[in-house]
């Protein structure tokens, strides 16, 4: 039961990390170089770096907390993150096909 909880938490962490990656890259593709009233100007490179640091920081802290000094728990959480990567990829692929101009 303990390892199932760690696996599910790993899936949640993976959804957070890879979903956030997709959202941050998608926001860059939507408005290339345009400044709007609701969105203050931020250089794209800075936006990606801040997104990476935030996602990686939260993911590593949560992974360390989930691990609790037991490497098997870390491996199980990482397997959950890999499953989440596959799930996000399957969820995003049809949307990417619709957005690509022909």
3D structure, described in words:
There is one protein chain. By secondary structure, this protein is an all-alpha fold. The protein has one domain (2-99). It is 80% helix and 0% strand. It contains three helices and no strands.
* Beginning-to-end CA distance, first to last residue: 49 Å
SSE order, as H and E? HHH
**Tally of contiguous helical segments:** 3
Share of residues in strands:
under 5%
- What does the average pLDDT come to? 86
User: Whole-number radius of gyration?
Assistant: 16 Å
Helix-and-strand structural type: mainly alpha
Low-pLDDT sequence parts? none
Main sheet: strands, sense, barrel = none
Domains (count)? 1
Residues in helices, as a percent range: over 70%
Shape estimate: flat
Structure summary, number of beta strands: 0
Short description:
The chain is mainly α and 102 residues long. 80% of the residues lie in helices and 0% in strands.
SSE inventory with pairings:
Blueprint: H1 2-30, H2 44-67, H3 71-99
Key words describing this protein structure:
102 residues; mainly alpha
């Amino acid at each position: 039961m303990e390892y199932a909880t760690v696996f599910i938490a790993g899936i949640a962490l993976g959804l957070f990390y890879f979903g956030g990656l997709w959202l941050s890259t998608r926001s860059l593709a939507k408005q290339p170089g345009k400044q709007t009233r609701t969105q203050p100007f931020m250089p794209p490179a800075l936006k990606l770096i801040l997104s990476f640091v935030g996602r990686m920081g939260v993911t590593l802290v949560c992974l360390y907390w989930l691990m609790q000094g037991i490497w098997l728990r870390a491996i199980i959480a990482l397997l959950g993150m890999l499953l989440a990567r596959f799930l996000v990829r399957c969820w995003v692929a049809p949307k990417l096909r619709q957005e690509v101009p022909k």
